[in-house]
Amino acid sequence: MQAPRSRPGDLQTRLDVEFAQVSDVGRVRRQNEDDFGYVAPATPTQAQSHGWLFVLADGVGGQKLGEVASRTAVENVSSNFRRSVGGESHSALLRRLVQAANHAVYEAGRAASPGGIAMATTIVACTLRYDRAVVAHVGDSRCYLIRNGHATALTRDHTISSDQLRAGVITAREAAESGNRHLLSRSLGNDLFVSVDTGEHLLLPDDVLLLCSDGLHNSVEPRDMSQVLGPTVDLNTAAQMLVALANQRDGSDNITVQVIRIRSVERIGMYRGRSYRLQR
C-alpha cells in the first residue's frame, strides 16, 4: 500500500486546496495495475496560469501489462501538463493531453513485443484553477463531487451497459444487473484515437472531489462516500477509510482514491473567452 499524502494549499492565491491519495492492491490480486499522480503549482503565478492536475488510471484487467498502460498514461498526462502553455483552456488542454496519452499507450503496446501486445487503461483527470474544475475521462474510473453531504458523479462510465442505458435500450435496473456492466466500451490504448469526455464545474468552498478506480465505486455507494468525507474529517484518514470499506465489502480489485478538498476559491467571470476577477 502506498501511504496517502496530504498537502495544504500554501500559495498566496485564493484557490486553496488540500488532498490525500492512496492505492491498495486489494484482497485478491497479486499486482496493483492502478496508477495515479498530481502536479501542483510551484508559484502563485503558476497557480493562475496552470493550476492543479490530478490524474488516476486503472490498467485493464485481463490484458497484458495493465500496470505499464496505467503508468504510461499517468506519466504522459502529468509531464505534458507541466510543459503546457499557461492560460490555455483546461477543457481543450485535457482533451489534448488524454489523446496524447492514448497514443503513448498504443505505441507502448506495439513496442512491447515483435507482434505487439494489446494493453489498455482507463483514465480520469481533473484540473483546478480559479473557481473551476475540469474533468476528463475515458473508461469507468470516476470523479465525484461531494457537496453539502451529497455525492454526485461528474463522469459517466464508458461500459456496454451504460451506453445501452443512455441509448434507452435497457432500464437502470437491467443495467445494474447486466453481465456487461464491467465491460468497457472505451479505453486508452486500443486504437490510435479515442473519444474523450470532458466537463467543467463551478467549485465552492468546502467542496470535495473524489477520483477513484472501479475497485472503490463497485462496492462503496455514493451515500457512504459522502458520509466518510464529512466536512471536518482528516483527508488521510478518510482515504484510508474508503479503501478499508471497499476491501471489507469486496476487495477483488485494486482500489485507488484521490481526495481533494476545496478550502477557498478565486471567483472569476468570463468575457469573450478571457477570465477576469470578480469584485468582492
Topology:
Blueprint: E1 16-24, E2 34-39, H1 44-49, E3 52-59, H2 66-82, H3 90-111, E4 121-129, E5 132-138, E6 142-147, E7 150-153, H4 160-166, H5 172-177, E8 197-202, E9 208-212, H6 214-217, H7 222-228, H8 235-249, E10 255-264, E11 268-271, E12 274-277
Antiparallel strand pairs: 1-10, 2-3, 3-4, 4-5, 5-8, 6-7, 6-9, 9-10, 11-12
General description of the model:
This protein has 280 residues and is an alpha+beta fold. It has one domain: PPM-type phosphatase domain (Phosphatase 2c, domain 1), CATH 3.60.40.10. The chain has eight helices and twelve strands. Strands 1-10-9-6-7 form a five-stranded antiparallel sheet. The chain has a five-stranded antiparallel sheet with strand order 2-3-4-5-8. A two-stranded antiparallel sheet has the order 11-12. Strand 4 and strand 5 form a beta hairpin.
